[in-house]
Every structure is written in C-alpha cells, then in structure tokens.
C-alpha cells in the first residue's frame, strides 16, 4: 500500500479538491484503480469526448493523483497508460509532522514482513525442539535394546547385525522386530518434520491474512 500526503500549504490540494468534487474525476480514478487505461480507453468507457477526458487527466496528474506507467502501440500511434498514484490520500494541517507520519506509515507497512520472518523462524525452532529429544530418545533406546544398531554406530557396525543374526537368528530378529513395533523412530521423525513444516508455513499465512484484512478495513 502506498500513501500520498497533502498539507494545507500544498498547491496541489486545490486541484485535488476540484477533481474529487467532480463526478468525471472520481469516475476516472475508480477506473484507473481497477486497471491500466489510456485516455481513449477512458473516453470509450465513460462515453465522453476525448478532449474532456484529457482535460481531467492533466488535472489529476498535476495533483499527483494519477501517473503514466507505460506506452503501447495503438491504431493511431503510441498511447499512454495511466494508473492511480496512490491507494490512500491523507490531508494534514501542517507539513511539520509529514516526515514523522511517513516514518510511522513505513513502520506499519514493514511490520507484517518482520512478523512473517519471525514466525517462520519460530516454526523451524519448534521442529528442532521436537526432533532433538527424538534423536536422544531413539539413540538411547537403540543402544540399550539392540546394541550396535544405534544411529551413531550404524555406519561403523553395518556388518555386525548380519553376523549376529546368523548366530542367533530367532533371538536377534524377534528382539529387534518387537522393539521396532513398539518404538518406531520413523514415526517420531515424520511427526517432527511435519510439525516444523506446518508451523513454518501456516503461521505466516495466518498473519498475512489478518494483515490483509486490516489493510482493507
């Protein structure tokens, strides 16, 4: 969202008042808020002579209410497309506080972005807090229930379970299988990652939605 601030000392304020009080000026602003349009497009849409539309466009542009944004090739040469210069117009009694008002408005505009970043970081931290206890928990149980199969020793002892299984097939396989059914570490891993992703995605979306509602209101 952009803001345009007028003060009582601003020479544009008189033209601003003239165009806002004009039905044609308001209709032009309403159309340019919806999409980019050229003077010819506006004349056709409003059913007015092109000279009348150009007169009001010059007034609106000199008041800082609209601005040209692009030029396109038309049937009779290039045509200029216009849009509104700002979605919010503020009138103040003095220019002394203008800088403070601009700074306050910038802060309001930047706040949602900072909140989104912080909420995403919080979501990732939640996932880490869930995954770290899972790592300690599963490492400890693996080392107690099935020696040599802890996550930190899998690479070093890759052949040990095979040898142990060959010597004691029924005991080792049954023991490892019962443990895996009771404490499936993959389930904890999936829950941790899912919680992290959900927190990192949903929280910013909720805050962004509330921010858009507050801006529209």
Report what the structure shows.
The chain has 8 helices and 4 strands, in the order βααααβββαααα. It has 217 residues and is of the alpha+beta class. The strands form 2 sheets. A two-stranded parallel ribbon has the order 1-4. Strands 2-3 form a two-stranded antiparallel ribbon. The radius of gyration is 33 Å and the shape is elongated. The protein starts with a strand and ends with a helix. Mean pLDDT is 69; it is low at 161-174 and 179-183.
List the helices and strands and how they pair.
Elements (H helix, E strand, L loop, with lengths): L2 E5 L4 H10 L1 H12 L4 H8 L3 H13 L3 E9 L2 E8 L3 E5 L5 H48 L14 H8 L1 H14 L2 H32 L1
Parallel strand pairs: 1-4
Antiparallel strand pairs: 2-3
Helix pairs in contact: 1-2, 1-4, 3-4, 5-8, 6-7
Keywords:
two-stranded parallel ribbon; alpha+beta; 217 residues; 2 domains; Arc Repressor Mutant, subunit A
Quick synopsis:
The protein is built from eight helices and four strands, in the order E-H-H-H-H-E-E-E-H-H-H-H. By secondary structure, it is of the alpha+beta class.
